[in-house]
Amino acid sequence: MSNKSVKELIEDLQAHYREASNIRFPYAGSRNVLRRAAGNYEGLIPDLDMYFSTIAGYCSWGEKILKWPREKILEAQNRIAVTFFAKHPQYKPLEAAITESDTPDLFAVMASHEKMRRSLLELFDRLNVERE
What we know:
Elements: H1 6-21, H2 27-36, H3 44-59, H4 70-79, H5 84-87, H6 104-130
Helix pairs in contact: 1-6, 2-6, 3-6, 4-6
């Protein structure tokens, strides 16, 4: 956990959210991965979209998260507790194909959302501790 205050964590989340909001869905990289993959991964794009949307949606709440009841925080925490590939192990064979050089758009969006996910989890942990 960092030494950032709750306010600083929220400011960071909002900055990440604004940045991510200006980036389009990484269709090119996703399709590139799918073209090279051996197997049936037809749900990859919708599953990525839902995963990214869930994380971005929580970030969009900004300071309103501070007013959430503990139950809502725990629910959100559970929904984003794991990485995309842990949540969707059927796509794990594709993970190595997502690189900065081969799929730069997909790589960047995944990295951005992972940073937001970790920041959200840190914020949720901090809020849970404060409310105990």
